[in-house]
Design a protein that fits this description.
The structure is a homodimer. Chain A contains 4 helices and 6 strands, in the order H-E-E-H-E-E-E-E-H-H. By secondary structure, chain A is an alpha+beta fold. In chain A, a hairpin with a 2-residue loop joins strand 3 and strand 4. In chain A, 36% of the residues are buried.
């Protein structure tokens, strides 16, 4: 065998091996992707402020305007609600919220009540975010294992965990699907398996 | 040099080359991804009904309720608005809507006017979709190169193109950003370069 031929064989074999490695690695990566966590925490179990959530999966919007709530709605005013993409994929597959599910509610003021499309409520500027995370290990002592967080500002590094009475109790009493107000989220309902 | 050492060297070089190939191929793939078109047409230039748009990029929601529009809003009632992901990436990079941009407006009825979060408007069930596509070649004769489509149902295979007077004229007169009502879309505004 010539030296050239040996070198070529030496070149091809690892390329094939490399190809095999890619083929073998891919499923591992897919599995890792399935496990990706969007809720990130400090060492003291404090939720880091979610970022880039506007590019997650939108599941619904509602509006509780000031002028329908004596000027002081609990959550002013539009609520744009997002779920992280891996938990969304899990929901579509199982109809359940996985451990690690994070849902962000972004509040937006009413910017106008009239536009070319008619009378109504139209979004103005952002008012801040709130978030909830489900985790049966991290939040084993929380109601249905969901913890709720407020944030002092968009610049806050981390959230403020809320007592169960502040958020969870109301979700438990009124939300239709595992503490989530699916009754207001047609996008979520339509994607549930078997629907 | 031992045979083993030669083989090892032969193994390393193509792996390095392979790494270089990956590095060179990636931009080509990225470029192809940049060109991906989500608006798809029949041979007769009719827009095929968009699918899977709920997993595109959400840019805003407004509500024109029946009870604020004499029972007959032009678009009943919530409008959930989505842009295709590649046009979204282009918007973030350039602040412009590329050729091929498709924006889908999904209408959703008001399901409730009261919930645990207060009084307001809460989404019920889907009412159908409308869409608009910008294309300077395909729609060279359309106002600002945007064409507007309605759909008879979710099952419709294709859309019904609308006269400029039906949709485009109003968008031209009232929308703040290239025929798009960005004044109602804080998500869109916040992502514009330089904002």
């Amino acid at each position: 065998m010539s030296q050239l031929k040996k070198t070529l064989l030496g070149s091809i074999a690892p390329l094939m091996l490399s190809g095999m490695l890619i083929a073998q690695v891919a499923p591992v990566n897919a599995s890792e992707a399935d496990q990706k966590q969007y809720a990130r925490f400090t060492q003291d179990n404090e939720l880091l402020t979610p970022r880039n959530y506007r590019e997650w999966m939108f599941i619904g919007a509602q509006v509780t305007p000031k002028d329908m709530n004596d000027g002081k709605p609990a959550f002013p005013e539009f609520h744009n609600v997002y779920i992280d993409p891996v938990s969304w994929a899990h929901w579509k597959r199982t109809g359940e919220f996985r451990d690690g599910t994070i849902i962000v509610k972004e509040l937006t003021g009413v910017g106008a009540k009239q536009s070319a499309s008619g009378n109504g409520y139209f979004q103005g500027d952002f008012n801040g975010i709130a978030a909830t995370v489900k985790d049966s290990k991290r939040f084993a002592d929380r109601m249905e294992n969901w913890a709720y967080f407020t944030f002092d500002s968009y610049d806050a590094k981390k959230g403020n965990i809320q007592d169960d009475e502040a958020c969870a109790a109301c979700h438990k009493a009124n939300a239709e699907e595992d503490m989530v107000f699916s009754q207001h989220y047609p996008v979520l309902r339509a994607a549930k398996p078997g629907k």
